[in-house]
Amino acid sequence: MPGLYPPASSLLDRTVPPEPGLADTALRPGGWGDTVRRWCLPVLLAALVTAGAYTLGVRRASPQATALPGAVDIGFVRDMSIHHAQAVTLAMIALDRATVPAVRDLAEDIAMEQQREIGVMAAWLDQWNPPTTTAPPMSWMNHPTATAPGADPPMPGMATRADVARLAVSRGRQADAEFCRLMLAHHVGGLHMIEEVVERGQRPEVIRLAERMRTGQRREVALLQTLVAELDS
User: pTM of the entire structure?
Assistant: First the structure.
């Protein structure tokens, strides 16, 4: 949706003020009580909304009888659910650590939308009841994209455990930049998976969801590229 996010360059200067010291009293304006309300409440609200998005996704997943799920449909849904789960983790960390409003807004959107999509895909797997598999991730792809050394699990664009740990201890502009770089790579990797299921999937509802993912992630990639350039300048 064009215009969903304000221009990144106009928002980078509008950072959230740094956290006051704990010596401030809870009742004094600007003290730690205000900090708790400013930081914790939005994060808790985002967590609740994200959980609700998952539930909504499960309820809205409707079975389609036009085609049996093939290996590509099942593999994509399984692997993209895991891929999305890491995106939600990164986004929730960013909501707690980042300070640029454009970054925090994007993180909130990613957390809610991808958690909703996880709910949709979980419901499909429950409806299809596919057999368990020991196949490695991405084995359903004809041309799997190379993964970063240490990616956990080995999927296109996935961050390593060290990447996630580094984001979790960052703060302010460092957290903004680290999240944007990780999420940019994550989205680009996810787009490779999306393109393959759009081309080779059998279930129409899976293809429709993948096409919506493609539209949203392409838009977010453009924004992330702008943010990374601005934050690194």
Answer: 0.75
